[in-house]
Design goal:
The chain has about 260 residues and is α+β, with helices and mostly antiparallel strands. It folds into two domains: about 35 residues, no CATH class; about 220 residues, no CATH class. About 20% of the residues lie in helices and about 40% in strands. Strands 3, 4, 5, 6, 7, 10, 11, 12, 13, 14, 15 and 16 form a twelve-stranded antiparallel β-sheet that branches. A two-stranded antiparallel sheet has the order 1-2. The termini are far apart.
Length: about 260
Amino acid sequence: MKFLGFELDRKVDLVAIAILLGFGYNVGYDLLGNLRGARVTLHQPQQVLIKYADLGSAELFVRFAAVLTYTNGGQPGHNAIVIEERLAYTLRDQTFEQKGQHFIRTERVAPPEDSGDAARPAPSSAACEPAPDDADDATRDEPAPRPLKIIREGSAVAFLVKAGDAVTHETYFNPFHDYRADAPGDDSKHRHFLRKTTFEKLIASEAGDAPDIAFTFQPVLMGEVDDFAVRPAQCTFAIDDSMRSALCRNGWASARCREVFAGE
């Protein structure tokens, strides 16, 4: 029997060939892994938080938060550094951008003990209209608000995702100051600052619909990264009556985010 022009002993040399091929496969796999570098994946968040915040002014603006998980399937030694996390969201064909500002923890705060299950009148807004004057008490009143406590654990600085490891944290996003050359003027630079009043108009029901809000979470990485493995995480959910009510009552709401697949 001949292999690559050499005369082989059928029993002994076939085993040697198998070992050689296996060794070649392992070397090739390791070489490919080294050439590809880090293989970072940002996984779809399970839910997204919407919160109104003043941002140091008299007006309230819309901010978002989500628990983000990264994995690195690269070979040992091929670590990656995430230097920034970005969020783009689209609502009624309008797209806005935010950037990660803080790593946080969120806690729901129970109503004061003396409030019990007391109800309060629903606030007036475009998305949450007050009850009519002739409505009975059961229709007029809503449960007491449930505040949300934001606990900052540090600024959203660059972090390391080691090869074969995972990193998870909750990121609080802030509207993006647009200083690009194609966005001249102060108004354009602040076009991603979505006011609460404008947001309420966008999420208001039109003929009974529940508008979708679509999210794209995009990490910005530094270092040797496989372009085919770094994809944005995309998800969406509908803002229905229950979410509009929660936003009006509490100033925040969260919902499970449905993954967006290619072609949707």
